[in-house]
Write a structure and sequence with these properties.
Blueprint: H1 3-30, H2 38-49, H3 52-84, H4 87-102, H5 109-116, H6 120-144, H7 148-156, H8 161-199, H9 204-214, H10 217-249
Length: 250
């Protein structure tokens, strides 16, 4: 391990220690009516992870999130490439995408429930509409801002549409596209959990909403901790990959 890697690991450990200390201090101030201590939360989460019922809720959320993220990426790439390749279309539709991005998606949930009903399809749809816009916007910007020399070279080589996308557009635009996917990951996770909170009988979002209604502080803290650990771990990995992709093209 290099010195830079050691420094990064030490800084990460220091950050974790500071966060745990702050959590403990906040618990001392707020009391057990509002939250649980770090040790108690980890202990209760471990207990939950040993139960089959809790893993059923994790599996439900994982399935909905996986399909929602997959759809968000695929639809975002298609929309982004189509709009980015045609400048006039991108100038017309970019404000529409930005406006849709700023709309609170929870206002669309009744429409989604009417269209898909309660269950997995509604959660997937709600997660997808959260994550598709950033992927589309970043992809559109990446394609629109490509170096013109690359496109001229592709024309000289008489590359077909598939070769143009696979050999020129995608590799050159990949860093910016991946940034959009990184943002879309977080928003898709939020959308999936919100979908479970307001229209589902299974999943971590449902557990969280049920615990809030019952004022079960232990369960609220344990589920929140699990979600934060998952989101932080994957986001950290995505950030590392994102930085490496940008360094490779710089």
């Amino acid at each position: 391990m290099t010195a830079k890697s050691w420094l990064g690991a030490v800084n990460s450990l220091i950050l974790i220690a500071v966060l745990l200390a702050a959590w403990q201090l906040l618990f001392e101030f707020a009391g057990n009516q509002a939250m649980t201590a770090p040790v108690e939360t980890f202990r209760y989460l471990t207990h939950l992870l040993m139960t089959e019922t809790f893993w059923g809720h994790i599996e439900e959320t994982s399935r909905a999130f996986f399909f929602a993220l997959l759809l968000a990426i695929l639809l975002g790439l298609i929309i982004g490439f189509l709009l980015g390749a045609h400048r006039f279309s991108s100038e017309v539709f970019e404000p529409v995408l930005v406006a849709f991005y700023s709309v609170p998606k929870i206002t669309l949930y009744p429409i989604i429930l009417l269209a898909f009903g309660l269950g997995l399809p509604a959660k997937i749809a709600f997660g997808t509409i959260h994550g598709v816009v950033p992927v589309a916007i970043f992809t559109m910007g990446a394609v629109r801002n490509l170096n013109p020399i690359l496109l001229k070279t592709a024309r000289v080589l008489r590359l077909g549409p598939k070769e143009l996308v696979g050999s020129v557009l995608l590799p050159a635009a990949l860093p910016e596209i991946f940034t959009g996917i990184r943002v879309g990951f977080s928003l898709t996770l939020i959308g999936t959990l919100l979908g479970e909170m307001f229209g589902s009988q299974r999943g971590l979002g449902y557990l969280l909403m049920n615990a809030i209604g019952l004022q079960n502080v232990q369960l609220i803290m344990a589920v929140t901790l699990l979600i934060v650990l998952f989101a932080a771990s994957v986001s950290t990995l995505l950030i590392v990959i994102d930085h490496r992709l940008h360094r490779r093209v710089s």
